[in-house]
# Entry
Amino acid sequence: MLSYKNKTAAVWKGMVAVAAFFAVALQCGLLRGKWDFSCLTYFTLMSNVACMLYFPAAAVWQLRTGHSWKPMVKGAILMCISVTGLVYHFMLHGRFEMQGTILVSNMLLHYVVPVCTVIDWLVFDEKGYFSVKTALLWLLAPLGYFVFVMIAVAMGAHLGPYGEKYPYFFLDVEALGFRTVFLTGLVMELCFFLLGLFWVWLDRRLSRK
# Structure
């Protein structure tokens, strides 16, 4: 018989999945009567979609086995959604005026889902799976996104709001120059790696308990 903690973990994971779903759906036009999936090119939306897909399966697995589902995948999602919350809070917060459903979606995307994902890992997930190697592998996600944006824009895509080319101001090569964008990306990758090392350290420390 599953313990109370496992049942609570499954319910929590289900709630995170629902929050991620509504965050993405509202952003894509759930209540506006017209769907627009162009916003899915944002790293924010991609990381929330990852949560939306992962957590239902993780909840079912928790109920069936009492264990965490694919801890290494969860680690990658933990890293990506942490980056989403931290980059928004420290680099993007206050740059746009939002109201209505977009404001609600924004709060879900950048605060509720990231915080709830971190809590889920801290409280419910099994520990001892992360290493320095995994922290290095986690860097592939933001690096891959950077390469995707540069290639897509070079091919004529417009990934930003209101028809702008770049989804984030710090990736705007035309406004900032490639050297500045490259150095900014390098600094961000270093910060991401340090964040990854923090999760590795915390994972090891908690696994001993």
